[in-house]
Write a structure and sequence with these properties.
429 residues; alpha+beta; 6-stranded mixed β-sheet; 5-stranded mixed β-sheet; 14 helices; globular
């Protein structure tokens, strides 16, 4: 049978599903403190702090996710005055302002949410994941198809994840095509803010760490690219010299224009230390997408709206990466501090299969069918033996006894082995 057929029953196993801590994406750092920052409760604590006196536009943030139930509302309820608009299926806004303002919200679709904050109209969008290339569209055709309903709402700002990247679009100058499109969309001048930081994000390994095996790539594969997150601001007709200086500064912020590779899924700051003194995010990448922001005062000046000193300080855009939606992408952060251990057992699981099937590549060279149709591990035919199945059953039971709290009585038997494992140290790189 094929590898895909062989692993199907395992993919339905509740314990194995719980090991999908990051949806198969490899982590650069296996430091336990850094990994703990990715746990569901800590991701939403970070969102709560990010929302303190800011307006945060979010995508892939679903407050009604089945597992864990209503995690967005539950984790943010500890932040005084927090308000959640939208986020029923994808896009929305999180505000934490102690001053009452005139706020209305319209959920235009699951992927488009509009917030009217005292007459400042902001649209948070999340466009289809495969980008323009999925239908062989130009950037203009792709945006026309997905933003048609938005055009009549006279918004001042459009921001979010467009999924328009170099890899997902056929273009020589992505930013210019976006600028041309939105100049026509707004029927006047605008500025497109985007980050050129390249984000490295790859699925690796076998099914204990990566259930989307068809998308796995070898450990030697290091391609990275700038993501499709943008912030587009409709400019007022006449700009002052101060406004023009602001535009120059926005176009040249080091955090936006740097082409460095930034690790995905790696928060270096504690949740309560994620902002600088001006309330702006310190991290350049939020989970696996760029972070963009502008001060509300500066925004009001550029769009020609009155500014009130009681307004939140900044407008920020982040993509939550579906990290809380375990039923959606089979991500579960319960065991994420133990990722090094999961990786080790993933390797052991694979090597048991490979012992009798030497046509399979070595573990570090695993590549899935969607990445290479000729060498996709998931489609390779293998010989399945009873001995193989017994060995796999034994190592899975061993791992479960280490990780599952219901096995606490038996845990001591494995404690020394667990702590001495070569890959399981505080600072694994």
């Amino acid at each position: 049978m094929s590898v895909s057929d062989f692993i199907k029953p395992y993919l339905e196993n509740d314990f194995i599903k719980s090991l999908q801590t990051t949806g198969g994406f490899a982590l650069k750092s296996l430091d336990r403190e850094i990994l703990s920052n990715l746990q569901v409760e800590n991701v939403f604590k970070r969102l709560g702090h990010l929302s303190e006196n800011n307006i945060v536009a979010v995508s892939e943030c679903i407050k009604g996710a089945n597992e864990p139930q209503n995690v967005v509302s539950k984790m943010l309820e500890n932040f005084k005055n927090v308000q959640i608009y939208g986020c029923d299926k994808d896009t929305g806004f999180v505000l934490n302002s102690s001053v009452s303002h005139h706020i209305t919200h319209l959920q235009l679709s699951s992927s488009c949410s509009i917030l009217d904050f005292d007459g400042i109209k902001i649209a948070s969008v999340h466009l289809p994941g495969d980008g323009p290339n999925a239908k062989k569209q130009t950037i203009k055709e792709f945006l026309d198809e997905n933003l048609t309903k938005l055009k009549s709402h006279d918004v001042d700002v459009i921001l979010g994840d467009t999924n328009i990247t170099d890899a997902k679009s056929s273009t020589e100058n992505r930013k210019k095509e976006l600028e041309d499109y939105f100049t026509n969309f707004f029927e006047g001048p605008c500025i497109v803010i985007m980050s050129n930081a390249r984000i490295g994000k790859h699925r690796r390994g076998f099914i204990l760490r990566n259930q989307q095996l068809k998308k796995s790539v070898p450990e030697s594969f290091d391609y990275s690219e700038a993501d499709g997150t943008i912030m587009v601001i409709k400019l007022k007709k006449e700009l002052s010299s101060e406004d023009k200086t602001d535009l120059d500064e926005l176009s040249n912020l080091p955090s936006f224009i740097s082409t460095d590779v930034v690790n995905a899924l790696e928060f270096r700051t504690e949740p309560n230390q994620c902002l600088n003194k001006d309330g702006q995010p310190i991290e350049r990448v939020w989970l696996d997408h760029s972070v963009l922001y502008i001060s509300i005062k500066q925004l009001c000046s550029l769009i020609g709206k009155s500014y009130n000193s009681s307004y939140p300080r900044n407008l920020i855009v982040v993509n939550m990466g579906s990290i809380v939606n375990a039923d959606y992408k089979s991500w579960n952060t319960k065991y994420i501090p133990h990722q090094a251990l999961i990786n080790e057992y993933d390797r052991r699981f694979y090597e048991i299969i490979r012992e009798n099937n030497l046509l399979l590549p070595e573990y570090q060279d695993i590549i899935g069918y969607s990445m290479n149709k000729e060498l996709g591990v998931d489609n390779i035919e293998i010989n399945v033996t009873e001995e193989m199945q017994i060995k796999i059953k034994n190592i899975l039971e061993e791992l479960q006894k280490i990780l599952n709290p219901s096995f606490k009585i038996k845990y001591l038997k494995y404690k020394n082995k667990y702590l001495k494992m070569k890959h399981y140290q505080k600072n694994v790189t």
